[in-house]
């Protein structure tokens, strides 16, 4: 469910974000530009929270995964509803704090936290550091003691389940770089309980992203339950269970993922009677359908060999997912023209063949100057953007009702060049 709809008007239909026609944003801000819907962000958060609470989970911490969409206005929108933040770098912690999310709702995860980042997290009172390896546990212990504090840690477990999905975003198999094995977690937990600089408070897992099947999650969560019970049997307390990222989302032509209610009910079932506080780290299910990438057609290039290239002003530096994961994004004309749909290869201007969003996509007829929207681009879109080919970093706009605000302006070329300096000998 999202708030990007075709609204019928005098000159035909036009795609809106809530009460704002996308063409108005394109006129005001230029293209390419990301557009986010406040109502959709809020709805996704509340539907998930209500489902989890409805399934009887005690006071769940929904720590939104900042990596999915790290714009401070997006974080503030969610933080105002009570969301926490799952962070993986000092930069993300700083963003969460800047958005008004208090340290006590921030989780710090990630496979390679530096000493400086750990110190920063502790100085700002993050709720929990998810420890991913034995040397990291010792590092956190040392840093916390140096700062005269005691870090609350969760041990990140790699439950060794096959979650399907793209190999580049699967994290829960034993040969992935994330976390420690179940038996290792038991040992580390017991060690941590004897360290002066850490207090083990829980266990965490995350098996991958864009998972559209509950079965692997259920298998992983069942293993986590067993782990909690074994650690408790040794006389240690386990207060928190962090179940990682959220559900996959429908990218238009894919199987419909389970609903938040199905997900919550499954968790309620698997963890029944465990008496524990839950944390979740959803990113995509909150942000993906809350954003589109708006682009303009530069030209249509029909090659005599038969291919029809739709060259647009967005490129792989603005939306990397198709080039990186062969990801599918629905592409919709903002003002669909009548006429026979045609197959297009939709490409950006970057000088490599990988800068192809899709091939042979059948779309309503399009002409130079038309606007198109890449749907479901609110997660891992702008957050993964770059300036490759010295293209300006893509701006972001947040819509609420009939208002919109530029929440990351497009830099100027002078801004871009001012960041660099010639070496003294040049
Ligand atoms: N927690 C941890 C420890 C994670 O590694 C991730 C995602 C999440 C939570 C959030 O997962 P989600 O709820 O969004 O599925 N760039 C890729 C996705 C990478 C996901 C990395 N980790 C993409 O565009 O598909």
Brief synopsis:
By secondary structure, the chain is α/β, with parallel strands linked by helices. 29% of the residues lie in helices and 25% in strands. Ligand LLP is lined by residues 65, 68, 86, 109, 169, 171, 206, 209-210, 244-246, 281-285, 321, 325, 380.
What does this structure look like?
This protein has helices at 22-29, 38-54, 72-79, 90-98, 115-123, 134-146, 182-193, 214-233, 260-270, 284-287, 321-325, 413-418; strands spanning 4-9, 12-17, 20-21, 33-37, 61-65, 84-87, 106-108, 128-131, 151-157, 198-205, 240-242, 277-280, 291-302, 308-312, 331-333, 342-347, 356-363, 371-374, 396-400, 403-408. The chain is an alpha/beta fold. It has 2 domains: 4-37 and 288-418, Beta Barrel (Lyase, Ornithine Decarboxylase, Chain A, domain 1), CATH 2.40.37; 109-282, Alanine racemase (TIM Barrel), CATH 3.20.20.10. Strands 4, 13, 14, 15, 16, 17, 18, 19 and 20 form a 9-stranded mixed beta sheet that branches. Strands 5-6-7-8-9-10-11-12 form an 8-stranded parallel beta barrel, surrounded by 6 helices. α8 packs parallel to α9 (260-270). The longest helix has 20 residues, at 214-233. 46% of the residues are buried. It binds ligand LLP. Ligand LLP is lined by residues 65, 68, 86, 109, 169, 171, 206, 209-210, 244-246, 281-285, 321, 325, 380.
Q: Secondary-structure map with pairings?
A:
Blueprint: E1 4-9, E2 12-17, E3 20-21, H1 22-29, E4 33-37, H2 38-54, E5 61-65, H3 72-79, E6 84-87, H4 90-98, E7 106-108, H5 115-123, E8 128-131, H6 134-146, E9 151-157, H7 182-193, E10 198-205, H8 214-233, E11 240-242, H9 260-270, E12 277-280, H10 284-287, E13 291-302, E14 308-312, H11 321-325, E15 331-333, E16 342-347, E17 356-363, E18 371-374, E19 396-400, E20 403-408, H12 413-418
Parallel strand pairs: 4-19, 5-6, 5-12, 6-7, 7-8, 8-9, 9-10, 10-11, 11-12, 14-16
Antiparallel strand pairs: 1-2, 2-3, 4-13, 13-14, 13-18, 15-18, 16-17, 19-20
The site of ligand LLP has 20 residues, from helix 10 and helix 11.
């Amino acid at each position: 469910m999202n708030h990007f709809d075709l609204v019928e008007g005098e000159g035909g239909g036009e795609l809106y974000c809530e009460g704002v026609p996308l063409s108005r944003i394109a006129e005001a801000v230029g293209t390419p530009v990301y557009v986010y819907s406040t109502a959709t962000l809020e709805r996704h958060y509340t539907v998930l929270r209500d489902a989890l609470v409805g399934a009887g989970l005690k006071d769940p911490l929904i720590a939104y995964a900042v990596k999915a969409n790290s714009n401070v206005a997006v974080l503030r929108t969610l933080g105002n509803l009570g969301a926490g933040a799952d962070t993986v770098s000092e930069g993300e912690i700083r963003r969460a704090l800047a958005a008004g999310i208090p340290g006590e709702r921030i989780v710090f995860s990630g496979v390679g936290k530096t000493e400086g980042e750990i110190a920063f997290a502790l100085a700002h009172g993050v709720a929990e550091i998810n420890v991913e390896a034995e040397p990291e546990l010792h590092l956190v212990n040392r840093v916390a003691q140096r700062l005269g504090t005691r870090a609350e840690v969760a041990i990140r477990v790699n439950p060794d389940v096959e979650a399907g999905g793209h190999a580049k975003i699967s994290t829960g198999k034993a040969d992935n770089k994330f976390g420690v094995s179940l038996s290792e977690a038991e040992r580390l937990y017991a060690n941590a309980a004897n360290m002066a600089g850490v207090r083990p408070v829980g266990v965490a897992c995350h098996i991958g992203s864009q998972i559209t099947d509950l079965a692997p999650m259920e298998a992983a969560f069942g293993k986590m339950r067993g782990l909690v019970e074994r650690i408790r049997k040794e006389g240690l307390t386990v207060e928190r269970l962090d179940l990682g990222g959220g559900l996959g989302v429908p990218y238009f032509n894919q199987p419909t993922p389970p609903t938040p209610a199905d997900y919550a009910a499954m968790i309620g079932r698997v963890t029944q009677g465990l008496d524990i506080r839950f944390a979740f780290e959803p990113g995509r299910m909150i942000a993906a359908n809350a954003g589109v990438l708006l682009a303009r057609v530069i030209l249509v290039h029909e090659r005599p060999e038969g291919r029809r290239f739709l060259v647009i002003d967005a490129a792989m530096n603005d939306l990397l997912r198709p080039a990186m994961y062969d990801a599918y994004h629905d592409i919709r004309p903002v003002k669909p023209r009548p006429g026979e749909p045609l197959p297009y290869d939709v490409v950006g201007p970057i000088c490599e063949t990988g800068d192809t969003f899709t091939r042979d996509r059948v779309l309503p007829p399009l002409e130079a100057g038309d606007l198109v929207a890449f749907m479901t681009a609110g997660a891992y879109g702008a957050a993964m953007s770059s300036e490759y080919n010295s293209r300006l970093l893509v701006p972001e706009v947040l819509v609420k009702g009939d208002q919109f605000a530029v929440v990351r302006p497009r830099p100027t070329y002078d801004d871009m060049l001012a960041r660099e300096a010639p070496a003294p000998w040049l």
